[in-house]
Amino acid sequence: MTIVASNLIWGVGPKTIVRDVSLSVCGGETLGLIGPNGSGKSSLLRLLSGLKRPRSGRVEINGRDVARVSRRNLAREVAFVQQNAATDTNVSVRDVVRLGRTPHRSALGGWSSADEAAVSAALAQVDMHGRRAQAWQTLSGGERQRVHIARALAQSPTILFLDEPTNHLDIHHQIEILRMVRDLDVTSIVALHDLNLAAMFCDRIVVMQEGALVACGPPAAVLNQALLRQVFRIEAEVIELSGSGRPHIRFCSL
Ligand SMILES: Nc1ncnc2c1ncn2[C@@H]1O[C@H](COP(=O)(O)OP(=O)(O)OP(=O)(O)O)[C@@H](O)[C@H]1O
């Protein structure tokens, strides 16, 4: 196991936002997090990655309690692609991705060939190597998203958290990014709104509703008509995706 979360509770003031969530994520697994708006996906990602401290409960990453690991050491293992992340505007694409190397560099150490190789590989993985000298502020929304993913990859994490990474991306790049995440030799936890993409690319899916985990398992075991009605308030037909064993959702028009 690389992430074990036990009885996580978090909230703001009197409001409880994450309600007693426990889950385990295995090494190399791609875990999808789905749920309606405001169901607690981003909050849970932040708790699991150590960015937020729970009110109660605990998270272990690679066997260590995240509350006891320094930010720098955590950043050597964990990368987070935030929703709508911002970046200083007066920089190039390559500068943004180079920031991903920060946790691996010492105060006196120079920029190494390993750093350069990690940055180049990360840019190539998101199809942005040819744009490395372009100014950040001139990128489209989807290109910025891909560069933020490259920055996370340049961090060489063992665990990657992605909060709606396909936002702003055209369908080609949505599929490319999720295929890449699935094929990476890292553990990934990814919040997604597109249920069919989650079904295609995730090993397991966690379903959140009003801060609680209401289902967890392989896509075919979790995505069914009753759950879609109860959690997402939609009518849909769930079929098998052409012999793959994976479900595909056909939304019914009203
Ligand atoms: N710091 C905060 N202060 C007050 N309320 C918060 C805070 N952070 C989150 N919330 C509330 O907690 C709930 C869950 O938010 P969260 O962003 O985790 O949901 P989500 O499932 O990621 O939503 P979405 O799909 O819309 O991105 C929302 O109602 C949100 O308004």
Describe the structure.
This protein has one domain: P-loop containing nucleotide triphosphate hydrolases (Rossmann fold, 3-Layer(aba) Sandwich), CATH 3.40.50.300. It has a 6-stranded mixed β-sheet, with helices on both faces. Strands 2-1-4-5 form a 4-stranded antiparallel β-sheet. A two-stranded antiparallel sheet has the order 11-12. Helix 4 (113-125) packs antiparallel against helix 5 (141-154). It contains 9 helices and 12 strands. A hairpin with a 2-residue loop joins strand 9 (204-209) and strand 10 (212-217). By secondary structure, it is an alpha/beta fold. The chain is globular, with a radius of gyration of 19 Å. 31% of the residues lie in helices and 28% in strands. Bound molecules: adenosine-5'-triphosphate. Adenosine-5'-triphosphate binds at residues 12, 17, 35, 37-43. Pfam families: ABC_tran (PF00005). One of its GO terms (molecular function) is ATP binding. Residues 3-235 form the ABC transporter domain.
